[in-house]
């Protein structure tokens, strides 16, 4: 099993390029099969989750060609099966986007129910509520969701809570329903907008994405398109916090600064200087960082996917910080691992109280999910001594060449797969 070994203490410095947004790419790959014509998608992140979803759409019969590392060509005309294999949903929950895509196109989809994951139970009742509202039947049969419709008819749908997945899944199915659909209390994340823009480039008629009311006029069919995915604001934010935690100076390139506003505001609040350019941001952190309070909220609030990263940074800020997680019920599992590095954090319900310490010390820790793993790497980069992060398969789900990009910023980090390689690293870094 691969792991990262890190020697902390180097302030990160230099420039790093951000890849395409994983959470936009997953939905866009599902939506790409909704036409029988060819779709070319650029700026696709080369990460485990997107590669698994590409396998899933090939498995049901779509033709997928990789033109280069970040460009894929998809043609859904040869799909013969509307039932997605369990192995894919087990690997990535977002396979459930194939429900909306297949239901929209074929009026029939069968996808195994996604389990919970390490950050919460993550039900998909709102997705299913939307499909029913569009006139589809939805049954749970032998662990799979089976949804069918004679025809899909537009509807006025009120989501009970803001849900990125439900907003996107319903938007896909409604694109090929007859008549008008309105989604109220819709998620406003940049990747929701990206999926809407992609569907519109295929001939869909979607208005209002990015606001909490999305209006869709169904069309008969969708056509070919070429599309480039937006940069990943969570990858960008992760590198911004890595710069802050190591007291470094990093230019994060290929970003949309507007998508990073909540993150930038918090970094400035804790004492970093953040300079914004057209498609990049520079984070400079010298000297002590200050405490802050942060509560995760749906976009444009502070992102839940950036919660572990700010906590790892606040672990060595001066004073007592409070981090409140309002989206998921179990997203503080990484705190126990940070405590083993000397962090002083108490979790009470959905709140973490962080008393800043002088410094963290390296330890052997393990990642419980994608963003927790990234936070433990950030902690290791800022700690004194050697940190080993196990279970990095989680990190590889959403970060393209994470250790390569960090090394280009001066980090002492390597991906290793056995004790011998860890010893070699220790000897090399001294
Ligand atoms: C997406 O998950 C992202 N994943 C998550 O990123 C992200 O944390 C989340 O949005 C919030 O921004 C992808 O895009 C693949 P939700 P999603 O539906 O769509 C509850 C990462 O690290 N809910 O907005 O599953 C749910 O339990 C991942 O990249 C229901 O109760 O999130 C949660 O508490 C982690 N019923 C809240 O709503 C539903 O039908 C928000 O979930 C749907 C959601």
Structure description:
The chain is an alpha+beta fold and 430 residues long. Helices cover 33% and strands 25% of the residues. The strands form six sheets. Strands 21-22-1-23 form a four-stranded mixed sheet, sandwiched between helices. α1 (22-31) runs parallel beside α4. The protein is globular, with a radius of gyration of 22 Å. Residues 23, 26, 94, 120, 122-127, 161, 163-166, 187, 304-305, 327-328, 370-371, 398 line the site of ligand EPZ.
Largest sheet, in brief, is: 4 strands, mixed
Oligomer: single chain
What is the helix content? 25-40%
Hetero compounds: ligand EPZ
Neighbour order of strands in the largest sheet: 21-22-1-23
Sheet-strand content, in percent, reads 15-25%
Low-pLDDT segments: none
Number of strands: 23
**N- to C-terminal distance:** 24 Å
Integer-rounded radius of gyration: 22 Å
* Overall average residue pLDDT: 96
Number of helices: 15
Overall form: globular
Supply the helix-strand structural class: alpha+beta
Quick summary:
The protein has 430 residues and is of the alpha+beta class. Helix content is 33%, strand content 25%.
């Amino acid at each position: 099993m691969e792991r990262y070994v890190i020697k902390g203490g180097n302030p990160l410095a230099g420039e790093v390029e951000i890849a395409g947004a994983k959470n936009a790419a997953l939905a866009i790959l599902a939506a790409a099969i909704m036409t029988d014509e060819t779709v070319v998608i650029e700026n696709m992140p080369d990460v485990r989750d997107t590669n698994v979803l590409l396998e899933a759409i090939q498995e049901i019969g779509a033709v997928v060609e990789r033109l280069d590392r970040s460009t894929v060509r998809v043609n859904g005309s040869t799909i013969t099966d509307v039932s997605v294999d369990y192995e894919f949903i087990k690997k990535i929950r977002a396979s459930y986007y194939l429900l909306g895509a297949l239901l929209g196109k074929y009026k029939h989809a069968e996808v195994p129910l996604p389990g919970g994951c390490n950050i919460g139970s993550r039900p998909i009742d709102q997705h299913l509520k939307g499909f029913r509202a569009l006139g589809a039947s939805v049954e749970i049969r032998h662990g799979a969701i089976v949804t069918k419709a004679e025809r899909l008819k537009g509807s006025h749908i009120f989501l009970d809570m803001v849900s990125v997945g439900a907003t996107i899944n319903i938007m896909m199915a409604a694109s090929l329903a007859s008549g008008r659909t309105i989604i109220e209390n819709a998620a406003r994340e940049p990747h929701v907008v990206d999926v809407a823009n992609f569907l519109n480039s295929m001939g869909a008629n979607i208005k209002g994405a990015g606001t909490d009311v999305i209006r869709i006029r169904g069309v008969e069919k969708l056509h070919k398109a070429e599309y480039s995915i937006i940069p990943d604001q969570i990858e960008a934010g992760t590198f911004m916090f890595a710069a802050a935690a190591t007291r470094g100076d990093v230019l994060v390139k290929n970003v949309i600064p507007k998508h990073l506003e909540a993150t930038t505001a918090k970094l400035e609040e804790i004492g970093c200087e953040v300079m914004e350019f057209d498609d990049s941001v520079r984070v400079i952190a010298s000297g002590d960082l200050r405490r802050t309070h942060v509560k995760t909220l749906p976009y444009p609030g502070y992102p839940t996917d950036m919660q572990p990263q700010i906590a790892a940074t606040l672990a060595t800020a001066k004073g007592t910080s409070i981090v409140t997680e309002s989206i998921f019920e179990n997203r503080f599992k990484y705190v126990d691992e940070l405590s083993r590095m000397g962090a002083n954090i108490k979790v009470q319900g959905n709140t973490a109280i962080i008393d800043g310490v002088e410094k963290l010390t390296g330890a052997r820790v393990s990642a419980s999910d994608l963003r927790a793993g990234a936070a433990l790497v950030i902690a290791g980069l800022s700690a004194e001594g050697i940190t080993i992060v196990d279970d990095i398969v989680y990190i590889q789900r959403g970060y393209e060449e994470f250790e390569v990009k960090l090394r280009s910023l001066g980090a002492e980090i390597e991906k290793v797969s056995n004790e011998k390689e860890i010893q070699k690293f220790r000897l090399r870094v001294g």
